Each structure stands twice: as structure tokens, then as C-alpha cells.
Amino acid sequence: MIYPIVKFPDPILQRASAPVTEFDDELRKLVADMFESMYAAQGIGLAAPQIGIPKRLTVIDLSNKKEPKDKIVLINPVITLQEGKQVEEEGCLSLPEIREKVRRPARVIVKAQDEYGKWSEREAAELLARAFQHEIDHLDGVLFIFRISALKRDLILRRIRKMQRAGEW
Ligand code: NI
């Protein structure tokens, strides 16, 4: 099933999501649906609140379906190490057409469960580290436009309001 993507300023995107506690078939169906919804939207990452489900679950695939081994499921993820610095442009399925440079740590270690409840640790750098942090931010109700300067954010919010008025958002 392909879920529609929730767009800013829907309040569900700015609230912290609840931990996943049941690792059952229903959860595994949700994970499969999230990959399907992400591919349909041409994204490389999707967090459950972005489809209206406030749970700590995110899927990532930098290859956009080309490499099955690149499919990553992070459930109840915790960042255990952050180091370095990178500044790159980011976008978000919940903020279509908006792109801005965001400063983030260059390397992270993330501990997370898979869809069977098994914990493991992953190390990521560059774009993957950025995707991990962007998606985990979603689970805490943080959008990338709240990680840039207030001045740049105001310009973006003005642009969104203009698109809303024109019926383009
Ligand atoms: Ni996003």
C-alpha cells in the first residue's frame, strides 16, 4: 500500500514519535509499505510520521531501489556517536521543492532495531550519515528547516506561504 506523504506544516511532523513495542507481522507490513511509499515519492529516506504514523521507525535506501543491500530499516534508533562536520544541501519529501544547506556531523554510529526486534549498530559517513540524522530528526519532530539560520528559515516559510496562497502547496 502506498501512503500519501504528510506535508509541512502538519503538526504530526513537529511532535516526537513513540517507541515501537510490537515486532509483529503488522509492523513488517508497515515497513514494506514504507519502502513502497518512499520509492513512489522518489525519496531516499522516509520516517513513519511522514505518513501520519507517530512511531519511531524509518526506512532509507540511497540507491532508490537499485541495490537491495542498500535497504535500511531503523526502528527505535539511537545515535551513539557523532563526529566531524559536513555542510550539504538537503531536501525532504514533506517540504517539496525546498532545498537548503544544513550543517551536520560527518560521521555517526547508530544503534537500532530491525523489523524483528534485533538490535545492531551501523556506522555511516557522508550522505548516509546525513540521511540517518535527517530521518532520526523526524522521529523527534525536527525538520531540516529548523537546523538552519532563522533568516534562511523565514525566507523558506514565506515562500511556502506564497505557494499555499497560490494553491501550489
Ligand atoms: Ni525528511
Count every beta strand, where a strand is a DSSP E run of 2 or more residues: 7
What does the main sheet amount to? 5 strands, antiparallel
- CATH T-level fold name: Peptide Deformylase
**What percent of residues are in strands?**
25-35%
CATH architecture: Alpha-Beta Complex
Cofactors and ligands: nickel (II) ion
Helical percent range?
25-40%
CATH homologous superfamily label: Peptide deformylase
Report the end-to-end length measured between terminal Cα atoms. Answer: 24 Å
Strand order of the largest sheet: 1-2-3-6-7
Domain count:
1
Query: What Rg do the Cα atoms give?
Result: 16 Å
Please, could you describe this protein's structure?
With 169 residues, the protein is of the alpha+beta class. 27% of the residues lie in helices and 25% in strands. It has three helices and seven strands. It has helices at residues 25-40, 126-139, 150-165; strands at 45-47, 57-60, 72-83, 86-90, 100-104, 107-113, 119-125. The strands form two sheets. The chain has a five-stranded antiparallel β-sheet with strand order 1-2-3-6-7. Bound molecules: nickel (II) ion. Nickel (II) ion is lined by residues 92-94, 134, 138.
